[in-house]
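During the reporting period, our protein records have gained a C-alpha cell line. A sample record is set out beneath this paragraph:
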Amino acid sequence: MSNQDWQGKRVTVAGLGVSGIPAAKVLHGLGAVVTVVNDGDDERSRTQAAELEAQGITVRLGDGATLPESTELIVTTPGWKPDKPLFTAAAEAGVPVWGDVELAWRLRGLDGREPAPWLAVTGTNGKTTTVRMLASILEAAGLRTAAVGNIGVSLLDAVLGDEKYDVLAVELSSYQLHWAPSLRAHSAAVLNLAPDHLDWHGSMEAYAADKGRIYEGNRIACVYNAQERVTEDLVREADVEEGCRAIGFTLATPGPSQLGVVDGILVDRAFVANRQKQAQELAEVTDVNPSAPHNIANALAAAALARAFGVGPAAVRDGLRAFRPDPHRIEHVADVAGVAYIDDSKATNTHAAEASLAAYDPIVWIAGGLAKGAAFDELVTGAAGRLRGVVLIGRDRALIREALARHAPEVPVVDLDRTDTGAMSEAVREATRLARPGDTVLMAPACASMDMFVNYNKRGEAFADAVRALAAESD
C-alpha cells in the first residue's frame, strides 16, 4: 500500500498498550482517521488516551465492543480474543481485521527502500532464545539485523525506522499469527507445540493451525522439529512457494535435509552440496550457552534459518559463542556448599519445565503458581527418577502435589501454605535442606507467576535474591 492509500482511511485500533499505541501513531501519521477503542478505563489507560488525543487521535475508553461508524479496517493488539463482539460486528460488516504484525508486513517498503526479508520463529517454548541466537549468528556474519516482534521490540519501528536492515529475526506468537493473513517469510521455524493459550484459541487444533500460519508462502525453508511430528505435519499442510524446502532439526544424528548432533558436534546435512553423503560441522555443543538439550534444539533451529539465508558455518559457531541468554532462562545463580542453584522462572508451563528438568540430575525442584488449566501427571512421571525432593509454592500447588502423590510417592515434598512474596526465601531454605552436594536446586515452576508476583522476572529475582542471601550466610 502507498501513502496515498491511507489518506482519510477510517481505521479502528483495538486496544492500547505496547502494540496499540505505536499502531495508532503510525496510522495517524500516514493520514488515516484513527479511533482507538479500549476495554479498560483505569488511570494508566486515561494517561495513554490523553497522549493520543493530544495528537488528534480519538480514543474511546471502556468500550471495546462497539464498531465505530464507517470503520474500513480494524488493527488489533494481539491479546484481544477472536470472539470479541467487536470482531463479530466487523465480520458482519465485511471489515477486515489485521494485527500489528500484518500492519508491519503491509507497510514494508513504504519509504521506497527494498524491504528486509523476515526469518520468523514461533513455538510454545524457546522463541525468544532462538530469535536472539539467530540475530547473534546473523550479526557474526556481518549482516545488519535486529531481533524484533513478540520479543518486545516493535516490528513497526523496524520496518519504518531510519535503520536499514539486511534481514530481520522475527519472533511471532500464536496471537500475532492469527491476525497476520498475508505474512510471507523468507524462511520460518516452528520449534515445538504443546497445549498453551487454549482459552484464547478455543482448542489445540486451532492453536496449532495458527502456529502453522508461519509457514504459509515461505520462499526458501520451512524448519521443523524432527522429534515432534506435529511440526512436520504443519509443513506438509502449508502452501509454500515452489522450491521451498522442509528442513528438520534433531538432537539425534541427522538424516539428509536435517541439522543434528554427532559426537558433541552440531552438524548440517541440509545446506551442503551432497546431503546424502556429506555433513558440515557448525559448532560444538559446548558453544551453546547453556548446553541443556532443549537449548541445543533452539541453537539448531537458529542455525537452520541462518543457513537458509546463506550464512557460513563459521558465523554460526561465532554467533552461538557470542550469545548470552536472557535472565531467568536456566540461569545459574550460584553454587553454595556444593549445590547449584538454577533460575528458570521463565518456565511458565509444563512443556518448558519438562525441558528444564531434563537438563539436571539429581534435582530439588521448586514449583507452583497459576496452573492455567494445566495437568502435571506427564511432567511428574517423566521427572520422577531425577527428583531428590520438591518444594511447592503458589495458588495451584495442590495440583502438582497430587500428581507427585500418584507418580512419585517416594519423593519428599514440602508444601508451603503461603502465597506472599516472602515465600520464595522459605522455599529456597527448604530446598537447601533437602539438597545434597552435587544436586541442583531448580526453580522451574511450570506455572504462571501472577498469584504471587507481578511477572516471571520478579519471581526469578526473588529466587536469586534468596540464593545470594544464602551464599552470603555461608561465607
